[in-house]
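Two entries, shown back to back:
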Amino acid sequence: MAYKILYAEDDPLSREKYGDYLTQAGAEVITAKNGQEALELLKNEKFDLLLTGLTMPVIDGMELISRSRKSSPDLPVVILSGGGTVSEAVEAVNLHVFQYLVKPLKDLEVLKNTVFEAIEHNSTMQCSLFRQVLKDVYFIPRIGPLTVGMAHNIKSPLTGVMGYSQLLKMKNPDIEGLDVIIEQANIVSGLLSMVGDKGQSEINFAKTPIDLFELIKIELKFLDFNLFFRHQVDTKIIELKAVPSFPGIYHQIAKVFHHLMQNAADAVFETQKKQISIVTDSFDDTVRLIITDTGVGISPKDLVRVFEPGFSTKPLPYDVEDYETPHGYGLGLYFVKEILNDYNAEIEIESEVGVGTKVTVEFPI
């Protein structure tokens, strides 16, 4: 029995191209010119999948998906659009869209495979692939392989500068300023080594023993590149203990720590007391990380929503006047929790408006 697909798209060329391809692949494709037509069809017929564009007259794609969820909550949905925004991607996650494809598709087989996979998966499995892709994009490595090569290329001539400076000092010990040149070159060399090591760790997806104590010391050095964090935030490491290692992917745990620290820095951005504390300890078979800030705090009604995709107490990036002002898409804590779920780790957030926030993360050893 052929799968029955409803394809909503206002562009006739797209309807013909992608609709005909799915028909040739063995599906029965019914088309609609806009969301209103699609909703009428959904009322009267049963479909195995809804394929829809986003920009359509009368009722657009997102509204179509939202309304269809009321009558057909388990209907798999795939978006096929000419492009979208991050906010639309967040909304797609909330609406349990299976996948978000961007046209024109270079390989039409991607459409067929995605559509059939969405239909054949149980509804509880929907959105998992799309969510993973969005997580990878949102938490894209901050250093990466390109910077590794750049650090190496800069360090090579720097080594020559250091060598010739030391040789010059040996032959001419009375020349002023050589010690300063050598000292500063050593500092730059150390920074380049740190950047190179960091970049290397971000392109390594193998699980290795994670030493949380060492990871935090390294990540704090990178946070110093944030001028607000470096010059205005008073970081108090109250109790940073050496703790047992646990298996993990380094850059994932580093991203969790970095995002929690960024949230803490954002929270103290406009407060008079700008203090963040970090605690690590272990008990039984668990390693614990606690980050506390003296920031604005979170209200009880907002606290229960902080892990929802798309929810944020901060403005969107294009609503702020400068990049330093705290902003976000409401995805950070959502994906932090997604990563922690992969490790069977627990996260708890306690907060009081005007007092601050305490985040506790527990990793099983």
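entry 2 starts here
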Amino acid sequence: MTSIYTQRLKYLKEQLRIQQIDCLALIPGFNLRYLTGIDFTLFERPFILLIPSNEREEPLLVIPELEAVNWRNQHPFDVNLFPWSDSTGPEDAIKTAVLGLTGIQCMAVEYLRMRVQEFQLLKRFLPELRFVDGDATLSKIRLRKSPQELECLQKAVQVCERSLEEVVSSITQGETEREICNRLMAAILKNGGDGILIEPAVLSGVNSALPHGHSSNRKVEAGDILLIDFVATVDGYFADITRTFFISHKPDPWLQHIYFIVNAANKIGRAVVRPGITCQDVDRVVRQVIVDAGLGDQFIHRTGHGLGLDVHEGPSIGEGNQMILEEGMVFTIEPGIYIEGLGGVRIEDDVVVSQNGCQSMTSFNRELRVIG
């Protein structure tokens, strides 16, 4: 029986040939894990998987001897293995591997992830080779999630929602953002998350106006906005959720108005998603709700981003992306309004494109909620 990793390798090779790319170089990270099922960590030692597009040629793996045992034990597909030790260094292994590549003129690399170290080693032994960005090809093969991937994503969502409810239902005035953040991380681990790969953003009061803020020692007070944005992973797959709360009592009418605008934008975003429309279409519909309210300048980021083995992957739900949505794509819908000196509101859900529309994987209550 052909394994899922053999199938993925075959599809990747087909896409490389379509793009007229002779070979792809991968280093440890999300793409390598997707292709092999093995979660190698990128340390200081060079590690390169070379994948010729020729369907008859096996991949070549230059790997530190310390890591080679992991490959031999799991062996997702056949490769020509080139292990190297600290005593010999990687140069001979890389030289032997790349000189074994035949008839290649164009090599794709992970433009956003390839380190200078590995890139320079490849250039040293293949000085005439043309290097190109392989990220679009890699994104294409990962865009549509399989049933097994969707199951992992849904489990990660459940970890998020269970953990969030445990924490927000017990928040008290006087706690710091940092203390709430630490309790949330503990809850994620207790409820089955893989680990804390990205620290939660717990932002109160004026700090909530920072779209990518960090939890601080600011104490949560009555009347504060409290925005919580965080992720959890199950088997490496990310869920990403944001909810905004109010401490002790309902906010003044202006902040309530902002909350209702964001909630309306989130709702229409989830409603409009379906196969056949573009990512840009979704962003424009969501953004128009906020623009019509006169607050378009305060929505300063795209509507959403893809989810999978990486917390930010394709598709990007933003202006200029005319990619057509297809069944099985997973991404966030996360409109927000941020007013410096006052605070911010964001409501973020994870959705999967279904046959006729979309399904929200997240179900945590979106209505205005007072806690603490």
